[in-house]
Amino acid sequence: MKRRRISGALITGLIASFVIVAIAGAASSDRNKGAIVTDTAGLNDRSFNFLANQGRLRAQNQLGMQTRALISKTNSDYLPNMVAAANQGNDVVVANGFLLADAVNTAASQFPNVKFAIVDFSWLFLKSKPANALGLTFKSEESGYLVGYLAGLMAKQKGGRQVISAVGGLKIPPVDNWIAGYRAGAKRANPKIKVLIGYSGLFPPSAAPKCKEIALNQIAQGSQSVFQVAGGCGLGALDAAKQKKVWGIGVDADQAYLGAHILTSGVKRVDLAVFRAFRDSKAGTLKPGGDRIHNLKNGGQDVGKISPKVPKAFIAQMNAIKKLIIAGKITPPAKL
């Protein structure tokens, strides 16, 4: 009986030791390691997740960091992926998108020695405001204003029904700030313009037929330009623009490669934001507990390639507006 009690105590002690070691391992981090956690649109959305992954790969190739991407197939994968990334010893874990906010808040509280960053969500709105979390936010309304301005000029030049449109994914702030800027820019260029707005409620490429249907309905109402703000789903909206021979406007990445029907793209440099977070993590200079704001002035926002069919005078006018935004003389609205 005594021998059994000793064995039981020994086993209990070993288990306790293992748990302590495991916890210590989870709490440690390596500044040469970083990870991203995607939303449910997948790495090949040719937009938001694609850009985040490009930033990760740049850190891996240029800085020699060990990096990985954890892919979320459903919303229920967000927190397990964040926890897995923290347990793997990454010094920084970047959550790609507004919808991962609750997972970031929880994971950051559980792993205080790991730095967490979230794209498109302000640290101020994280429930617990964890000191080891960072918001990577974007003034997408600035780029939206510029592409809307260009679309308004093109509609005025063509004549006919003065209508353009936007197809959003979910009605959330990182979508609406694009559309708010787009509408305001179009109205500055063309006060008579009407801007139609629709939402698919989805972002993944598998939902592209839904976005295409919305865009086709908008085009039937006279839309001359369709701005997609729906990630992979929005590729369907751009396909509708191609099919009906109207302008399509890309989002996040420069989507000019999709064809001659692309007027331009509103570019959000998610790749740059992720790369800078990884770079500063490795250097030990990443400072959580607030937001990093990306805009036209610091290169975090931009406009993509512009169709050669656009008059040079229109481009010059748009660039003049860009300078005014950078100088703070025009403040595009971020809310609809």
In words, what does this structure look like?
45% of the residues lie in helices and 21% in strands. By secondary structure, the protein is α/β, with parallel strands linked by helices. Strands 2-1-3-4-5-11 form a 6-stranded parallel sheet, sandwiched between helices. Strands 7-6-8-9-10-12 form a 6-stranded mixed sheet, sandwiched between helices. It starts with a helix and ends in a 10-residue tail after the last helix. The protein folds into 2 domains: 10-138 and 271-294, 3-Layer(aba) Sandwich (Rossmann fold); 141-268 and 306-326, Rossmann fold (3-Layer(aba) Sandwich), CATH 3.40.50. The model is unreliable at 1-27 (pLDDT under 50). α8 links the parallel β8 and β9.
Brief account:
The chain is of the alpha/beta class. It has 2 domains: 10-138 and 271-294, Response regulator (Rossmann fold, 3-Layer(aba) Sandwich), CATH 3.40.50; 141-268 and 306-326, Response regulator (Rossmann fold). 45% of the residues lie in helices and 21% in strands.
Which properties best describe this structure?
336 residues; alpha/beta; six-stranded parallel β-sheet; 2 domains; disordered N terminus; 10 helices
